[in-house]
């Protein structure tokens, strides 16, 4: 029998799904296998419905509800939740596209979990930006575009049916300011998903390079563009937004809950625990005031505070778990490695600078 669909963040089924994900998290980290079972569970519990409108078969949760949902999921299993953010980023790019035929073809099956997708857009936002020539270029051809190059970071490319990928337009091999976003079918000739990288954490997300050699993409796969700053059109997987902070906070929550459980027998943990709990509540409140549009707190500042809390909470959990926590398989060690992810994931320059200032022990400018 299929589980009950989760229809709100308060739904008791949320607790059931999170307990299942948390139960699988240790093995996922040790094996580095793709979280197929976890994603199947999320599909059965209706998680993929949260992010898209009823028009496509979704539940169309509002931003606050989605943040509550992501907090619960990321506290149970960061890797699975991260994969879902990349999938959702691609879905939302398509949902905000003006290509109605593409939407009708892909979105209903994405909501049902029958199709898998992800994004390859970092080279337009936060990766390889210092290079003179873009790493992935597109040139106009009859009825479509020819893409050449690579997307440096794509999570779950080999497991996806298509990837929402960005490319910089060239004319006669000369780079132009215009960019293109396409839903690239993974079975097109010339598309190769590279071997996933072995990483410090979230290796099970199977993130690697996506290579494209003379790939002809028909016009019907265009999501947006060609135009300047294609990433600023519509909503989607923007870099440095509050979604990244949400996942950092979810990770901090599991580490703080671990500390709280330990402190029952160990009163000496009480003072640091209280300080972390208070800090958690502050960042949590700040996150929701940003989500509600009430706060003038910059998402960069929120991000830096969430990163800092994730790093400190994970290390506090490890310190409390002592040598036992340093053995692979213990969650405290995993949280420490996962917290480092937030120093590099989708970090625009202001966030990177703020992180470095915090690490250097100086106030950011
Ligand atoms: C686990 C993981 C999963 C990810 N998944 C996705 C995904 O699914 N989709 C997606 O689009 N993105 C994804 N990303 C990409 C991510 O959001 C960032 O874009 C990425 O972490 C940027 O790192 P980079 O090494 O490519 O940065 P770069 O800026 O390209 O830096 C690369 C190297 O160049 C050097 N360098 C940097 N700046 C300069 C400079 N100004 N001058 C000279 N040298 C310089 C540095 O030595 C650096 O090590 C993922 C990243 C990670 C770590």
What do you see in this structure?
The longest helix has 28 residues, at 299-326. A hairpin with a 2-residue loop joins strand 4 (162-171) and strand 5 (174-185). Strands 1, 2, 3, 4, 5, 6, 7 and 8 form an 8-stranded mixed sheet that branches. The protein has 365 residues and is an alpha+beta fold. The chain has 3 domains: 12-111, Acyl-CoA dehydrogenase/oxidase, N-terminal domain (Butyryl-Coa Dehydrogenase, subunit A, domain 1); 117-232, Butyryl-CoA Dehydrogenase, subunit A, domain 2; 242-358, Butyryl-CoA Dehydrogenase, subunit A, domain 3, CATH 1.20.140.10. 46% of the residues are buried. Helices cover 46% and strands 18% of the residues. Residues 86, 118-122, 126-130, 152-155, 199, 202, 205, 207, 344-346 line the site of flavin-adenine dinucleotide (FAD).
SSE layout and pairing:
Elements: H1 12-31, H2 36-44, H3 63-76, H4 78-95, H5 100-111, E1 117-120, E2 136-141, E3 144-155, E4 162-171, E5 174-185, E6 191-193, E7 207-218, E8 222-228, H6 242-263, H7 270-291, H8 299-326, H9 331-341, H10 349-360
Parallel strand pairs: 1-4, 2-4
Antiparallel strand pairs: 2-3, 3-7, 4-5, 5-8, 6-7
Helix pairs in contact: 1-3, 3-4, 3-6, 4-6, 6-7, 6-8, 6-9, 7-8, 8-9, 8-10
This protein binds flavin-adenine dinucleotide.
């Amino acid at each position: 029998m299929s589980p009950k669909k989760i229809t709100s963040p308060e739904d008791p089924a949320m607790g059931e799904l999170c307990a299942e994900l948390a139960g699988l998290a240790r093995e996922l980290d040790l094996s580095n296998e793709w979280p197929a079972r976890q994603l199947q569970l999320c599909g059965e519990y209706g998680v993929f419905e949260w992010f898209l409108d009823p028009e496509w078969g979704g539940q169309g949760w509002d931003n606050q509800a989605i943040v509550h949902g992501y907090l619960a999921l990321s506290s149970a299993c960061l890797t699975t939740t991260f994969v879902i953010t990349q999938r959702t980023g691609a879905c939302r790019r398509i949902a905000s596209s003006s290509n109605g035929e593409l939407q009708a073809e892909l979105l209903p099956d994405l909501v049902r979990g029958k199709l898998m997708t992800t994004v390859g857009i970092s080279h337009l936002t936060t990766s390889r930006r210092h290079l003179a020539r873009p790493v992935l270029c597109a040139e106009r051809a009859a009825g479509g575009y020819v893409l050449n190059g690579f997307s440096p970071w794509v999570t779950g490319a080999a497991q996806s049916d298509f990837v929402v990928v960005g490319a910089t337009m060239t004319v006669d091999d000369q780079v132009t300011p215009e960019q293109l976003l396409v839903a690239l079918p993974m079975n097109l000739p010339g598309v190769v998903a590279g071997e996933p990288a072995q990483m410090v954490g979230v290796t099970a997300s199977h993130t690697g390079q996506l290579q494209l050699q003379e790939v002809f993409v028909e016009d019907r796969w265009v999501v947006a563009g060609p135009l300047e700053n294609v990433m600023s059109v519509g909503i989607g997987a923007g870099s440095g937004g509050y979604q990244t902070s949400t996942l950092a906070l979810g990770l901090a929550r599991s580490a703080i809950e671990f500390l709280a459980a330990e402190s029952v027998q160990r009163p000496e943990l009480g003072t640091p625990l209280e300080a972390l709990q208070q800090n958690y509540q502050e960042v949590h409140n700040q996150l929701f005031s940003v989500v509600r549009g009430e706060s003038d707190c910059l998402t960069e500042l929120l991000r830096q505070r969430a990163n800092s809390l994730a790093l400190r909470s994970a290390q506090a959990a490890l310190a409390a778990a002592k040598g036992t926590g340093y053995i692979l398989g213990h969650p405290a060690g995993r949280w420490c490695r996962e917290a480092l992810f937030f120093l590099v994931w989708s970090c625009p320059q202001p966030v990177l600078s703020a992180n470095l200032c915090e690490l250097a022990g100086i106030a950011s400018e």
